[in-house]
Amino acid sequence: MGFPVDREGLLSSEKWFYSFMQHHKILSQKHAENVNRARGSVTEEKIRNWFTEVYGLLGDDAIILKEPNRIFNLDETCFSLAPNKGELILGERGKNVYDEHSNSNKENITTLFATNALGTWAPPLTLYKYKKIPAIIARSAPPNWGIGKSENGWMTSETFYEYMSNIFLPFLIENNIERPVIVFLDGHKSHLSLYLSKFCRGNKIIMVALYPNSTHILQPLDVAVFGPLKSTKEQIEKNFLSGIINNPEMKTNVESGFRATGLYLFDSNNVDYSKIIVRTNQLRRIDLNVENLMSHLVFIENKIFELDVDLLGKFKRAERGGYAWDGNEEAVLLFKLWLEVKNDTKNYDHVSTSTPVSSPPIDYLLSPTNYNGKIHDRPTTSN
Hints:
Distance between the termini: 74 Å
Pfam family, one: DDE_1
InterPro entries: CenT-Element_Derived, DDE_SF_endonuclease_dom, RNaseH_sf
Protein name: HTH CENPB-type domain-containing protein
Domain DDE-1: 106-232
Organism: Aphis craccivora
Strand content: 5-15%
CATH class of the largest domain: Alpha Beta
Order of helices and strands: HHHEEEHEHEHEHHHHHHHHH
Radius of gyration: 27 Å
């Protein structure tokens, strides 16, 4: 290789790559798992604290945690209605070949699953984006399989209430499962409503929200079930999932999922903490940024106080009220500068190693009545 060296000359050859991989067997090619940035705020300490607090707040009901048939995990996942690719076929060279489907690749269905730690499945619920469910879909559903609809095909507080009251509770009664039971689920707002809270309290169903942004660690359905389900994509696109979830191998997956997440046996030592995202260098830089921003904020506030002893108080009242500065026009730019620096310090708080992440108290996680969103006067009924 001569000089000067161009970019192409510096590129590694395919032979070099495979030789490098052969000599470094610890390395492998992997698909990156997409995770929410907020998951980076989850720590082992916070998860262990969550286990301790849940156990304490359950009180006498904590005995349920020793009975796998009374411990449930409930979650929904989305499946595409149209295949991304079809079977290999022969076609004229130079021309595109299409396999046409009635559903676009943007259409999805949501299916809600519920299973206990023994791998016993409650009837699922599949939601469609229809104003009226076609008769062919209703007729093709397996026995006891819930079929519903919503405006966008996603779970809503109304459809979730109907599942719990019309499908999940009858399942518990029919299978003689002793109540109360515990249902672990994520804290999405679609799982919270006043009617649902009253219903669960009256029917001895204890709903416990998993620690925020930790479902990839604590949710058995996420950890051990949804991956294998979606790997059977061709079956999902052509059939309902009843045959798949009742497969003996899936029962084994469920049991291992409850073990790996520490939900049964209920023990924080069983959690796979290797899934926690650690960004050591980034967190150090963030801490330095927070310190710099705080020093800038203190400097600016001192200067504001020197200019006008009342001005800083007026700025803070404007910020708390959420309205723009409407005072002295000469102070507009100063207000904007102060507000920008102050907001920057807030933006760093949730990932700083020195500032703990604020999370809802555990009694909130156990009590859907604390939800401050839309409260429905009555649950709606899907026809």
